[in-house]
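PROTEIN ENTRY
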Amino acid sequence: MRIALGLLLTAGCIPLVSEGGTWTESGIYSKSPEEARKACLETLEKKGFKIAKQDEHTLQTEWKVTLSPHYRQGNRDRLDLELLEAAPGKSQIRIRASRDVNDNPRTPMSEKDAEWISAGGNDALAEEIQMLLKLRLKGVGLDD
């Protein structure tokens, strides 16, 4: 009886971890790091992300918030990108997406009252951005 009750209580819970997502790495692109950087900025802008911090080799977005009226269904995502020079004139991109969930049960639709706790990463988002960058940098043929 206790086990069944425990399973019912935890079935709808989101597992919470303290780290961001795993890094996803692209293949090597026949584009310079500058061209890869430009593609990253354009892709992130099209997906609705704003850049919070950047330097020559890294980009970090602001949190992109998605609220929900349901407890722990509201979330926010942030992307970290590393732009690496794989060889002269070639580049590689690493991406990690961090996700937080809103732990405020009383007013889950209020961004100012949100109580953000880490939910680990959003690997699906990181993989989606990688695929969009691959299409942008290699083209539809994906032949090089």
About this structure: Confidence is low (pLDDT under 50) at residues 1-18. The longest helix spans residues 123-138. Strands lie at 24-25, 51-54, 58-61, 64-66, 75-87, 90-102, 116-121.
